[in-house]
Predict the 3D structure of the following.
Amino acid sequence: MSASSGTLSASLRARGRLWQRLTDAVGRWPASVRVAAGVLVALVAAALLASIVAPLDNTAVDLDRVLEGPSAAHLMGTDEVGRDLLTRVLHGARISLTIAAAAALAAVAAGTLVGVLAGTLGGRIDAVLMRVTDVFASQNHFLFGVLLLVLFRPALGGAGAVMLAVGLTHWPSLARIVRGELMSLRERPFVAAAVGGGANRRRLVRRHYLPHLLPAVGLAFVLTVPHAIFHESAYSFLGLGLPAHQASLGNILADGQRSLLAGGWWIALFPGLAMLAAAMTTGTIAEYWREHLHPRWRSELEL
Amino acid sequence: MTALLEVEGLSVAFRTRRGVVQALSQASVAVQPGQLLLVVGESGSGKTVLAHTMLRLLPRNVDVSGSVRLGGQELLDLPPGVLRRLRGRRMALIPQSPASSLNPVRRLGGQLLEAAQARGLTKQQARTRLRELLDEVGLDLDVVGGRYVHQLSGGMQQRIVNAMALVGAPDVVIADEPTSGLDADLVDTTAAQLRAISARGAALVVITHDLRLAQRLGGRLALLYASRIVEVGPTAAFFAAPAHPYGRELLRALPEREGKSIPGMSPQLTALPGHCAFADRCPDRFDRCTQTVPDLYPLPGGGLARCFAHAER
Amino acid sequence: MLKLIVRRLAVLPLVLLTVATITFALTEISPFDPVAAYVGAENNVSPQRQAQIAHAWGFDQPIYERFGRWISNLAQGDMGNSVVAGGQPVAGEIASRASASLALVGGALALVLVGGIVFGVLAAAFRGTVFDWLVRTLCYFNTAAPSFWIGLLALYVFSIELGWLPAGGSSDPRTVDDGGVDLDHLVLPMVILALTQYAWFTLYVRNTLLEVLREDHVRFARAQGIGEVAVLLRYALPNALIPFVTLVGTHLAELIGGTILIESIFGWPGLGLLSLKAALNEDIPMIVAITLCASVLVVLGNLLADVLYRVVDPRVREASP
């Protein structure tokens, strides 16, 4: 009895310490970053819990209340078939954020793979990989993405094609960053020690490089998400991305464009505000993080 | 006779991310017309800050207290317009590194003319005066004017900034490290040019860490250590018999004397001790030295020394 | 410098070949079936007819033959035919729309340069004041806000609500269509396109200017008694803008990409709208051709930037003795 309560209190104490460390770290953040983090958490929570949080059914068409402005009953108004806009925006935000996160993940994964290959294998492979990276990097992101969408949407579906498009257009800068980090890591004494101890390449990568690269990769991911949100929304807005039944914020904005002439400005305003909030909050946090850890990345990430 | 340029109780501190850097503490010097004042100290001791403070060329993150007076007029609270007219005309600077002090992307002719016209000269007058000054040091305005800074040698660059300082016939010339990076024969030429400036009647302040140059130039000498002036007096007297232990150790470190370098390191300007800053390295220290900061005590030769060893007199 | 230009231009065909190869590979890898797309959902098109179409387009030939033929066509300027109604040559379509996009991009670039320099200089000069904070905050908002959202809002406010500016197209449909462009139709799309690049440039000017203002030569100019305005405009600004020239190359590419969104919102008849229509119609030859043209522009843009840098910076232009 006493033994189990001993371990229970020990684990509670450990959690208390972790909590303390967390609150200490947050306390060090400047006010702007704390606000941004708070808003972002609220936004993500609202989006993820859209089905629970949203006031009305996402598909509830109400033809009596078509194109009504914001009111007490419909905080963001209704769209051209009477659906509650707030509900639509919440669901749209969930889809946008999910797709963007997945797309950013794809880009980071591809970039890290190429970067690690180039950095560890070196020599001619490195040179070839870097030239390929250059060619991809010189493409205009958007135009190239459009081409990819047309080619792959019939097979992969809207979401899959968008992830491919974002992934293939954004991996070059990430590859360069990872390769650069790897290059500087290789100079560090602990690597020389490991090599001296007889570690082969695969072991080096797994046990020594990856753990040190993870924070950098994490930051790169957070920095890519706002770009992914923009791209996905833009593609969907143009009708090249997600289909209407999987409406992201971009799709809703396309509806907004159509209803502008009828005076329905709110349909164009609110989804964009959600995107703005997402971009600004992730941007603020990521900038602060980057200033602290990787000031050298400034030029590389002018994506 | 009131001094032409008078610095009194000047303290300059920089607010940086690493903390407060105390560059100068309670510095007081004075220069008369035709007189030469040497400000000597190691790099990072606060010498250049003194030069920049006199002309109010400091960045925004500084705290300045004390007084800098030119001909009796307080400079530290002058409005910007008045200050601008004073720079170049009454007080001129010869900067520490001429290569980076001239605009690298503009031809020199334009810069020289603009600088001269800022002194109130017309274009014609400016051209004449510049031609004269450059002639004296063997440079042709027409040739040099068409060049860019990076196309000239270090010696030519130095001669140009020297000439620019003299365009307005200023009362005070401040030369910041005029011989750093120059070969021995160029040092000779520069020393001669400086003496010539002094001979014209201007008050000359020369900031340097080159002790041999200091000895050659003569005049009066102020020794800076860790943001404080630790000795003032005639240069000759300093080199004959330095009063402050730091000065003594400095001279002993010269290759032509004992060549014995001073043990230890000077304190960081972000963490100055509350006592004599040289005490930790001083071979003659006693208890009082590690307790409070000494004042400047008068010396028999007419100078001052910040050392308790001279307190009795 | 001539050597540099020659060297860079020599690389251009190689880059294009690489891009073309990658593009071709992508079209091959993708499960996209152009024949199926062309015949659409009609399922009364017999397999024989489909095979006929495939044969006419050369799809039954081996891959390297098709690639070779495509490349040789490209080299002669034939970029294939559009699969959209009429089957017009792609090159001709692109050529006819290019000037409209050029006007848009050129105007936007000019706005970015002028606006960025003016506000960047003012923000640096009045650093720390409310004005500076306002400029920086607006730039920050601008970077985070999606360009097409801003475009929609601007369209609503200035065109639909206030009626100051037309709602789209390049000319008033009620007047005789002489193919010309009405200036008031150019305003909104040009401004919105400029806004996509304006923020980074303004911040760049401001921040570089502040760095340059700390340099030795600025301090020495002040020591000469030269006034603050002259110091800012003649000793700081030119030095700050020189490195910018190399950045123009990369950001020109972004400006070109931005035309797809902007032209679609405002119905501007340029290459961006053409790309969008091609994408919606699954007109692969058209999109591929535009992608290749964009690659050419990017390479040329970078070359121009490098050349300009060498011309503009005297330290590089006239080597030291």
Remarks:
- Residues 141-186 of chain A form the longest helix (46 residues).
